[in-house]
């Protein structure tokens, strides 16, 4: 069985509707790590224990609706699906983790050498043992190494908790999200905050067991939800209800801006604002990467906003600006356009004056 090459949304939907386990690699040609992981996929499809698994690859940027639906914000990303439902995923170039998760899904726990013959003209002997490590994957073929770089060092848990607690003036750690609370207490907390028109952010503890357990110790508070204001623990639902009843809560909560007011403020945040996937140092798509290169050549000062961190802004700005794609460039709060417009302005010699607001 060969790796399926998906190029259309309908192909994706038909492929993942299978009763069999389907593994889909979301890749981009410009991402260096995707090539070696495609080769790993080619080897996995040959493994006898995975004979009932379908393997496919999909260009993430060519199928934005699918990428958005499954929260694919970086490449490589691997989705494991059965009957059209997501059962697991692997974010990043981690062959070991991918193989383990596939094995779990097919009810086998045999962890074998899956890279036995990479299709570049060299062979690894069958007897060769290839070590897979969660933090580093290295295969030596003859004298040519193929290296998938290790993940960045894991951040200390307390440091991570401190950053999360202070990520917004009002942070709510809960089960689920503001749109879809996953327990009655969390639902009641959201209803209370919304009734006060409070501006707040949430963190879904069900998506991160380390945070879920670690925050109990960090804050010395054993249950959820937990509400923090300016980095300080306020308490759970009962305490927040008491503070509301006593008239103490509302004064502590910043009022929610309308989406339109927030978008207007963001587009005026700098003389030149770029809304993109990632940031200037780490663009997260090919279009954003190209735009950063062009803007760097101009020497113009600009700020960026990572739309992958705020779904409300990501969707709202499309309507606000009547421009459906990203990146988007604004000068003095006015939309200039996306990458194609910037390229046209560069070719016509108008780009610098436009970015200075002199057009």
Brief characterization of the structure:
The chain is α/β, with parallel strands linked by helices. The chain is about 35% helix and about 20% strand.
Mean model confidence by pLDDT? 84
Radius of gyration: 24 Å
Strand/helix succession: EHEHEHEEHEEEHEHEHEEHHEHEHEEHH
N- and C-termini, Cα separation: 57 Å
Structural class: alpha/beta
State the helicity in percent bands: 25-40%
Question: DSSP helix count?
Answer: 13
Domain Thioredoxin: 1-107
Pfam families: Glutaredoxin (PF00462), Thioredoxin (PF00085)
Keywords: Iron, Iron-sulfur, Metal-binding
Protein name: Thioredoxin domain-containing protein
Please provide a written account of the structure.
- The chain is α/β, with parallel strands linked by helices and about 350 residues long.
- It has 13 helices and 16 strands.
- It has a five-stranded mixed β-sheet with strand order 1-3-2-4-5, with helices on both faces. The chain has a four-stranded mixed β-sheet with strand order 10-9-11-12. It has a four-stranded mixed β-sheet with strand order 14-13-15-16.
- The protein is flat, with a radius of gyration of 24 Å.
- The protein starts with a strand and ends with a helix.
- The model is unreliable at about 110-150 (pLDDT under 50).
- It holds the Pfam family Thioredoxin.
- This is Thioredoxin domain-containing protein.
- InterPro entries: Glutaredoxin, GRX_PICOT-like, Monothiol_GRX-rel, Thioredoxin-like_sf, Thioredoxin_domain.
- Keywords: Iron, Iron-sulfur, Metal-binding.
């Amino acid at each position: 069985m060969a790796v399926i090459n998906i190029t259309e949304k309908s192909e994706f939907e038909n492929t993942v509707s299978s009763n069999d386990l389907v593994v889909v690699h979301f890749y981009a040609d410009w991402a260096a790590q995707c090539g070696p992981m495609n080769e790993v996929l080619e080897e996995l499809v040959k493994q006898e224990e995975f004979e009932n698994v379908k393997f496919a690859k999909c260009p993430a940027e060519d199928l934005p609706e699918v990428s958005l639906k499954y929260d694919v914000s970086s490449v490589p990303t691997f989705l494991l699906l059965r009957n059209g439902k997501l059962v697991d995923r692997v974010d990043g170039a981690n062959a070991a983790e991918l193989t383990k998760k596939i094995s779990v899904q097919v009810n086998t726990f045999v962890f074998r050498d899956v890279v036995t013959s990479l299709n570049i003209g060299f062979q690894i002997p069958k007897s060769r043992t290839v070590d897979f490590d969660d933090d580093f994957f290295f295969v030596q073929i003859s004298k040519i190494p193929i290296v998938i770089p290790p993940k960045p060092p894991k951040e200390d848990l307390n440091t991570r908790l401190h950053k999360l607690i202070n990520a917004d003036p009002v942070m709510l750690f809960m089960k689920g999200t503001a749109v879809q609370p996953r327990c009655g207490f969390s639902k009641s907390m959201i209803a209370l905050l919304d009734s006060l028109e409070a501006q707040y952010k949430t963190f879904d503890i069900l998506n991160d067991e380390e945070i879920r357990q670690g925050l109990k110790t960090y804050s010395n508070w054993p249950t959820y939800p937990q509400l923090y204001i300016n980095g300080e623990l306020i308490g759970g639902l009962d305490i927040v209800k008491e503070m509301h009843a006593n008239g103490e809560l509302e004064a502590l909560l910043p009022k929610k801006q309308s989406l339109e007011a927030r978008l207007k403020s963001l587009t005026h945040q700098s003389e030149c604002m770029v809304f993109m996937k990632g940031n200037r140092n780490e663009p997260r798509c090919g279009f954003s990467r190209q735009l950063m290169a062009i803007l760097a050549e101009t020497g113009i000062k600009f700020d960026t906003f990572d739309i992958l961190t705020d779904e409300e802004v990501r969707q709202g700005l499309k309507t606000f600006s009547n421009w459906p794609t990203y990146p988007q460039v604004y000068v003095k709060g006015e939309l200039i356009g996306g990458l194609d417009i910037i390229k046209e302005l560069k070719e016509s010699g108008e780009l610098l004056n436009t970015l200075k607001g002199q057009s």
